[in-house]
From TrEMBL:
Quaternary data: The Tol-Pal system is composed of five core proteins: the inner membrane proteins TolA, TolQ and TolR, the periplasmic protein TolB and the outer membrane protein Pal. They form a network linking the inner and outer membranes and the peptidoglycan layer.
Family stated for the protein in its record: Belongs to the ExbD/TolR family.
Keywords, sorted A to Z: Cell cycle, Cell division, Cell inner membrane, Cell membrane, Membrane, Transmembrane, Transmembrane helix
NCBIfam families on file: tolR
UniProt-recorded name of the protein: Tol-Pal system protein TolR
Mode of membrane association: Single-pass membrane protein
Gene name of the record: tolR
One of the protein's GO biological processes: protein transport
InterPro entries with a match to the protein in the record: ExbD, Tol-Pal_TolR
Length: 145
């Protein structure tokens, strides 16, 4: 009888020990909490010049320019480049594209500017209903052989 009492006292458990998993989860949580703020830093990008051919378009394009300070400039068709704020640009370009759906919309970003300015313009143009947007670049100044 003693052997059966001892056997009941040391019965094996069929449960998973989750303590090591909790430790690993907490370490991963701390790592992600430390690294996440580092992912949102702005980086200056010097875009390279391209050897691409220019597009031939029948209509004058709408050009939204972003300078290195983040100031926006708008060129509608044959008009001169004029400074503009983001909301007015969004309204004007949206109305112009609705009136002329075949017109090209181009974004020109300053080489020394932050990418955030161009990204904000792309998001605002999408909200204005512009389906296709092109990025402008300067032709290569020197020929490499």
């Amino acid at each position: 009888m003693r052997s059966s009492a001892r056997h009941k006292r040391f019965k094996l458990k069929s449960e998973i020990n989750v303590v090591p998993y909790i430790d690993v989860m907490l370490v991963l949580l701390i790592i992600f909490m430390v690294t996440t703020p580092m992912l949102n830093s702005n980086v200056d990008v010097n875009l390279p010049q391209a050897n691409a051919k220019s597009l031939q378009d029948k209509k004058e394009p709408v050009i939204v320019s972003v300078d290195h300070n983040g100031q926006l400039y708008l060129t509608l068709g044959t008009e001169k480049k004029q400074p503009i704020d983001a909301q007015t640009m969004q309204a004007k370009v949206g109305a112009f594209v609705k009136a002329n759906p075949e017109v090209s919309v181009l974004v020109a970003g300053d080489r020394d500017g932050k990418y955030d300015g161009v990204y904000q313009v792309l998001a605002q143009l999408q909200q204005a209903g512009v389906a296709k947007v092109g990025l402008m670049s300067a032709p290569e100044s020197g020929s490499k052989k």
